[in-house]
Write a structure and sequence with these properties.
Layout (H helix, E strand, L loop, with lengths): L34 H4 L1 H8 L5 H16 L1 E4 L2 E4 L3 H11 L4 E6 L4 H13 L3 E6 L30 H10 L4 E5 L5 H8 L4 E5 L10 H5 L15
Helix pairs in contact: 3-4, 6-7
Length: 230
């Protein structure tokens, strides 16, 4: 079987070397599965996309934003900007005026606060909840016993396609995605036409911090590393 890219298993990360600016990265000692070795043609082709003026500028501003999230102090190198502030600054750099906010009903309170933050910074905000339209879950084949509040209750389906299409119709400059379920976020991303970012993802157990379980995979969440049952 041919080698496949497996950056997550790389022991050295030679693509992010600690070398002087006038030195050139070397991949001679890179593992066989390194995409810098395996996919050089694709790398060269994809990098040419940055020659498109609008893409180059967007990427440049993203990199500037990344840089501004750190600072050097007498005590050392440290981070300084939370993601919500980073999102605001990036939108400002791009001169975005009309922002779309697609959120899960489970984080409606947070969406209200985020809207207040964005409006305080001078943005116009168009927001759409996942339950917009109140379409019954039966519309997509959900059985009564599969409804969260129970078979005897009405339950609106999450419709990320509706969210995306409403924001498309509003011609927003930039979209912020927050708290959609796994799969629902996938559909939103597929149908959304505007550039977008993710402010937060849903994790009902960890307070929307999915990496908490990953950090504890060798202890409290060791079950995550057990082989899948056949």
């Amino acid at each position: 079987m041919p080698d496949k890219p497996q950056c997550a298993k790389c022991p050295r990360m030679l693509c992010y070397p600690n070398i002087a600016v006038d030195e050139k990265p070397s991949f001679e000692e890179a593992p066989r599965f390194c995409p810098s070795k395996l996919k050089q043609d694709i790398i060269e082709k994809s990098v040419r996309e940055y020659d498109r003026e609008e893409i180059r500028e967007f990427a440049r501003l993203a990199s500037v934003q990344e840089f501004e999230c750190y600072e050097r102090t007498p005590d050392g190198f440290r981070t300084k900007i939370p993601r919500i502030e980073e999102t605001v600054q990036f939108a400002q750099k791009n001169a975005f005026k009309r922002l779309g906010l697609a959120f899960c009903v489970g984080v409606a309170g947070e969406a209200r606060t985020i809207t207040a933050i964005l409006e305080a910074k001078g943005f116009e905000v168009v927001s759409v909840c996942c339950k917009a339209g109140a379409i019954p879950k039966e519309r997509i084949g959900i059985k009564p016993e599969e409804k969260i509040p129970g078979p005897e209750r009405y339950e609106s389906m999450c419709s990320p396609i509706t969210q995306a299409e409403i924001l498309n119709s509003e011609e927003v400059d930039f979209v912020i995605l927050m708290g959609l379920c796994v799969g629902h976020d996938t559909l939103f991303i597929r149908y959304c036409k505007a550039p977008m970012t993710v402010l937060a993802v849903k994790d009902r157990v960890t307070g929307h911090n999915p990496l908490a379980a990953v950090y504890l995979a060798s202890s409290y969440y060791v079950r995550l590393l057990l082989p899948a049952a056949e």
